[in-house]
Design brief:
Layout (H helix, E strand, L loop, with lengths): L1 H34 L19 E10 L2 E9 L6 H11 L3 E2 L9 E8 L2 E7 L5
Antiparallel strand pairs: 1-2, 2-5, 3-4, 4-5
Length: 128
C-alpha cells in the first residue's frame, strides 16, 4: 500500500515540477520579448489576423521619431467592401489585436479607406 502511495507522490511531484519549469520557461520567453524589444520591431502581416481571402497588396516598414510601424495596403476578400473589412476589424479587435501565446505583445492599429483598398497602420508601440 505504501509503495503505491509513494509512486503517486512521486508522480504528483514530477508533474508539479514540470509545470513550474514550463511556467518559468514561458516567463523567461515573455521577458526576453519585452526586454529585447526595440522601437524597430514591427508586426508582421500574419500577426494581424486579417480575414480569409484578404489580399495584401503592399507591406512596408516605416520609421519616424516615435519608432517604427507596419503599413499594410490590403484588398478585401471578393464580395466584401472596404467598409465591411473595416467593420470586421472594428468588431473583432476594436483597435487592438491581442497577442498570442508565443508573442504576447498587443498590436495597436488604425485603418483608412483609399478607394477599393484599406490601409492598415500597425505598431507595438503607438496607441492610435
Amino acid at each position: 500500500m505504501s509503495a503505491v502511495r509513494s509512486k503517486q507522490r512521486l508522480f504528483v511531484a514530477l508533474a508539479v515540477g514540470a509545470v513550474v519549469i514550463l511556467g518559468l520557461a514561458y516567463l523567461a520567453w515573455f521577458t526576453l520579448l519585452n526586454r529585447g524589444s526595440e522601437e524597430g520591431d514591427v508586426p508582421s502581416a500574419s500577426s494581424m489576423q486579417f480575414p480569409d481571402g484578404t489580399a495584401i497588396v503592399r507591406a512596408e516598414k516605416e520609421c519616424g521619431s516615435g519608432g517604427c510601424w507596419s503599413t499594410f495596403t490590403v484588398r478585401p476578400a471578393d464580395g466584401s467592401t472596404p467598409g465591411d473589412f473595416e467593420g470586421y476589424l472594428a468588431k473583432q479587435f476594436d483597435g487592438e489585436v491581442p497577442g498570442t501565446f508565443f508573442d504576447p505583445r498587443t498590436i495597436n492599429y488604425m485603418t483608412a479607406v483609399t478607394g477599393s483598398q484599406v490601409v492598415v497602420t500597425a505598431s507595438y508601440w503607438s496607441s492610435y
